[in-house]
Amino acid sequence: MFLLFGGLFLLLYWRFVSIQATGVVKGHELETEALSKYESGYALSADRGKILDRNANVIAEDTLSYRLVAVISEEATENEKNPRHVVDTAKTASELAKYIPMDEDKIYERLNPSKQLYQVEFGLAGRGISHDVKKQIEALNLPGIIFFSDKKRYYPNGVFASHLIGFALRETDEEGKSEVVGKMGLESIYDKQLTGTDGKLTYQRDARNYLLPNSNNIVQEAQHGNDIYLTLDKTIQNFLEDAMSRVNTKYTPQSMIGVVADPKTGEILAMSQRPTFNPDTREGLDGNWLNDVVENTIEPGSTFKTFTVAAAMDSDNWFPNAKYKSGQYTVYKDVIRDHNRYGWGTISYLEGFQRSSNTAMTNLLDVMGWDTLEKYLDDFGFGQKTGIDLPNEASGIINSRYPIDKYTTTFGQGSTVTPIQLIQALSAIANDGKMMQPYVIDKIVNPNTGEVVMNSEPVEKGQPIKAETAKKMRELLASTIYGEAGNAKRFQIEGYEVAGKTGTAQMPKANGRGYDWGKNEFLYSFLGMAPADDPQLIVYIAVAKPKLGATEAGSDPVSQVFNSVVQNSLKYMNINPTDTAEVKKKELANYVGEHSDSIITELEADGLHPVLIGESGEITEQFPAQGKVLTQGGIVFLKTAGAITVPSFEKWSLRNLLVYKSLSNLPIEIFGEGFVESQSVSQGTIISDGAPIVVKLKTPEEQYLTPPAEDMELEDEIVEGEEQQLPEE
């Protein structure tokens, strides 16, 4: 017995020693399981990165919302007088149907599942609930209805470059993990960069869930997704959206396209289309998920004559005063006609271009030859992708299969392009021959560290024409608007000289056989720039199949968008409404390290408006930087040390106000857009505390726009490519 019990004791002792030494029992690590028993924590949710415009205005961000849950198990209720589960499913379904987008019978089915569950949710209908709706539901005192805080992707601007921005939705996988996923546009393209990584807070607790004394809290910080800054300007984008919405309501076209760009850099300042949708609700997103500016091709119509003439001019084949017989041109058995069928007799090529004569272009092709034109069209980037930082870009086709195709291409029929190709090609004419690649991403920033992950720079795509050719083309394009024979007089803008070309193109039938025909069946467009002598903006507007009135021309809806956007944008950009060629200009030097008094005197003598941020002394920072050229009256910000005296913000643009706010670090609260109307702190006040300075702005429409003039005399309808011009092959 002694040996038996002694052996058992030794065996038990050896087991204790073994467990103590290894910490493992039957493959289970005791320390790990003990920690898991007493260790608890919760996830620290990471934010999806923001999408912002060039001035850091939010376009898309995460916001707090709520998730609706219904507890249906009776086990949740301990006191029948205070039920914690859904008691009356019919009443609950009826009440909830008033507040969430789900039918009453569907809610009732959720509350009465076929198998025993503790709680149920309501899918997308029960997510993204606002605080106001949550309060209204809570006021009903429905037993078993509870809310959990959640995050929702929020688009504060409503319809705003929607096909470019896209949208993201919260999805739940099979394991119950929930995250916001990009489904369309930039939200989908840059989903990986925008998605953050959740963190975790870990702590130790006892069996009753109380925090153990002297326990260490372990925090693994959440890594928020990268922020994406776009080249879009919120104000200019809003000008475009508002104008397109007005025209869309008035003329109910089949579709519309609008693009605004900076010809000096290739930056896209605004981009939109119709039909469109609200990314917050997806209302209006029926069929087309494509960004038409980049992913769809069109036959451009007479806007393409811009590049036909540019090719002739640059190759020394443009003779504006030479004469030709207008009206019709025969290519073998095919007849090409001018839009008024009979032409204007024998006229000059200059007048032919101003009148948008098709036969002027066909005769011009005979002068320079197809090989020359084809080379220039290739140099302008047609038939190939621009390389814009967006996927699924279409390339279009320059059609030269048959002789008739070569001739119709000269006036934009039969060959296809994308709107973004037209913008890129026009940048060469607006930018003294240098063609700039379009882009929409300005930079990508890691908000956790402030590191700039990606920074875009302007890319020159070549120089398809000489600077002198570009200057002459701008003058020629201006003559279509201001010349006696010009057919684009509707595009005149008070205070600014515009250059550009109208377009009217037939649209292929739905079955792909032939073209639709009729006043309300064409694609009307305008490709232009302003100011004409030194363009700051290039704009393309296209309206397909608008419902025109009896006395209206196709250029009416197009000009209503173009004129509004360009005039408002130029005023917002502080481009003086005068002949910019006569405005005095000044190239800024490096003023950092200089004394503010002497620099202020120098700048004022040059007609500029210096703004001192600080006290008189050494300049530590300036804006704009060295090398920038300002026109007379432009603002130069000079930062020094010391107390800041508030200037007069009267008539300052939003852009200048944002620059001042950034340099001064003053708590300026900005309301509205456009130009400053009032400020809460008077000029000359020395800032000594952190009280906010409230500045209110008004839009240029409110400040500048006058009532519309009487309708101009109706011009000839521009109809290009009649059915007999483009026979079916």
From TrEMBL:
Give its localization: Membrane
SUPFAM superfamilies reported for this sequence:
beta-lactamase/transpeptidase-like, Penicillin binding protein dimerisation domain, Penicillin-binding protein 2x (pbp-2x), c-terminal domain
Under the heading CDD domains, the entry gives: PASTA_Pbp2x-like_2 (cd06575)
- Region Disordered, as annotated, extends over 704-729
Q: Which domain of life is it from?
A: Bacteria
Matching SMART domains: PASTA
Keyword list, A-Z: Membrane
Q: Report domain PASTA positions.
A: 582-642, 644-699
Acidic residues composition bias: residue spans = 710-729
Q: What protein family is recorded? A: Belongs to the transpeptidase family.
**Which named protein is this?**
Penicillin-binding protein
To which species is this protein native? Answer: Solibacillus palustris
**What does UniProt list as this organism's lineage?**
Bacteria, Bacillati, Bacillota, Bacilli, Bacillales
